[in-house]
Structures are given as structure tokens and as C-alpha cells.
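Support request from a user on the community tier.

User writes: "When I paste my C-alpha cells into the form, the page sometimes reloads and wipes my input. The last time it worked, I copied everything first. Here is what I submitted, just in case something in the input itself triggers the reload:"
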């Protein structure tokens, strides 16, 4: 359980940092950057909420873990669409790790 919480919080932090960097970049990103930013926003919110629900052993935690894993997978894919950005590549890695931990938690009895 602690591994899932740690993965969620780490992913949340990395996604927040990547989102901040995307917002301050002067490079035109168009539709691709907008898609990445939406995925980052979804991921930051859901990872934080998932960690909160798991920590308090909410009866909704397993369902939230499933949703969080899906959001993390979507975010990883969006980040991978910009392979030249090292921050987004770190984010994709954190998202994949979190998705794996959340899928494990969703399959475990809480």
C-alpha cells in the first residue's frame, strides 16, 4: 500500500513540474502541447486524490486506483508524443510506474 501511495505522490510532483514547465515555455506547441497539458492536469489531480483515498483506506480506493492507472497511462502516452523533452520523458516514466502500482492495488483487497 505504501508503495502505491509513494508512486502516486511522486507522479503527482513530476506531473506538476512538467505542467509548470509547459505553461512557461515560449515554444509554440499547438494541439499537441494542449493535449499533453490536459493529460498532465488530469494526472496531477487523480494521483493526489488516489493517494488520499488509499491513505485513509476508503472503500472507493480500489476504483480510484483503476481510474488513476488509466489517467497515468494516458498521460505517459501524451508525454511520449514529445520525445525531445527530457522532463516529459521523466514524467512518462513516473506515470508508468504509478499506473503499475495502482493496477496492483486495484487488484488487491483493501
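"...and here is what came back when it finally went through:"
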Amino acid at each position: 500500500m505504501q508503495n502505491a501511495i509513494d508512486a502516486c505522490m511522486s507522479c503527482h510532483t513530476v506531473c506538476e513540474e512538467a505542467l509548470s514547465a509547459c505553461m512557461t515555455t515560449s515554444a509554440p506547441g499547438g494541439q499537441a502541447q494542449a493535449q499533453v497539458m490536459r493529460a498532465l492536469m488530469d494526472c496531477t489531480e487523480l494521483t493526489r486524490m488516489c493517494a488520499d483515498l488509499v491513505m485513509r483506506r476508503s472503500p472507493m480506493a480500489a476504483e480510484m486506483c483503476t481510474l488513476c492507472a488509466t489517467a497515468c497511462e494516458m498521460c505517459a502516452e501524451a508525454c511520449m508524443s514529445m520525445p525531445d523533452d527530457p522532463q516529459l520523458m521523466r514524467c512518462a516514466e513516473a506515470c508508468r510506474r504509478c499506473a503499475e502500482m495502482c493496477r496492483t492495488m486495484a487488484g488487491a483487497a483493501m
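Agent notes: The reload is a front-end session timeout and is unrelated to the input. The mean pLDDT is 91. Helices lie at 2-24, 30-55, 61-80, 86-107. Escalated to web team.
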